[in-house]
Design brief:
Belongs to the eukaryotic-type primase small subunit family. The chain is α+β, with helices and mostly antiparallel strands and about 350 residues long. The chain has twelve helices and eight strands. The structure holds zinc ion. The site of zinc ion (ZN) has 7 residues, from α1.
Length: about 350
Amino acid sequence: MQKMNPYKIDIGAVYSHRPNQHNTVKLGAFQAQEKELVFDIDMTDYDDVRRCCSSADICSKCWTLMTMAIHIIDRALKEDFGFKHRLWVYSGRRGVHCWVCDESVRKLSSAVRSGIVEYLSLVKGGQDVKKKVHLSEKIHPFVRKSINIIKKYFEDYALVDQDILENKESWDKILALVPETIHEKLQQNFQKHHNSLQRWEYLKKTISSQDNTKNDKCGPWLEWEIMLQYCFPRLDINVSKGINHLLKSPFSVHPKTGRISVPIDVQKVDQFDPFTVPTISSICRELDTISTNEGKRNEAESDIKHRTRDYKKTSLAPYIKVFEQFLENLDKSRKGELLKKSDLQKDF
Ligand SMILES: [Zn+2]
């Protein structure tokens, strides 16, 4: 790998033949057979609901969107689907990836993958669609649990940091999501209130006193629909449903930012800060310091064996630990499965 010095490393499916044989086998015989279920969440897909940055830019104010996305999707993958081996990775720039690596998951067809992404998608419609979330009267447990997660962040994230009801321009976007019959009332009263927190309280009070009409649901549904439109994860469907899609390898270097694509510890996702993730130059500097210090101590000892472990002495170490823990669990469950199989065979 070092000799080839690749510009980037993408990971795709396991194929029926070796990659270099793909032109030599019979047409159609070269088939993707297994692949992790992957998710790609990109901040650019939230441009209509974040007010701090746009396109490739991110900041600490909008990063909460990724924190909520990880909590919501990870909970569902674990509790609703029973998937055990999930690795979350920072992409190095403006988003996150998730790799689900359970053996049974790797063999899923595209149709089943599409079904899973469909289950996990609530925000629908492109740029021209204003209202992107429509809840049915009976709330699915997945939706309810997702709302409960969003509720923990909504005030700080949406009302304070994003200030989504700050001025007429911003609240007009929210008015577009509620029935026209209450627009005027809300407009007038929003002007009387001083900040997003007060205006949100007023909005909640108004819609809960409103009767449901045939086409417009009011009450808590409407409140939840707005919260979901502003906070619910937006998945890149095509990345997840295909079995041929490629995704950047964990620990690769993002070409634009120089940041390392590092695994995220889900237990500590609220503390994860993309701006403190090591870059290729910061790692090189650290390695230089380590080698000069060690060179002073004992020049003869700096053999190859020593150097291979050097990365563990850099600020990459905690991220590598997360990755190793993930691999260890995967290995344990693989060995467990093999043992079960051999026990079953003995029974006969
Ligand atoms: Zn931002």
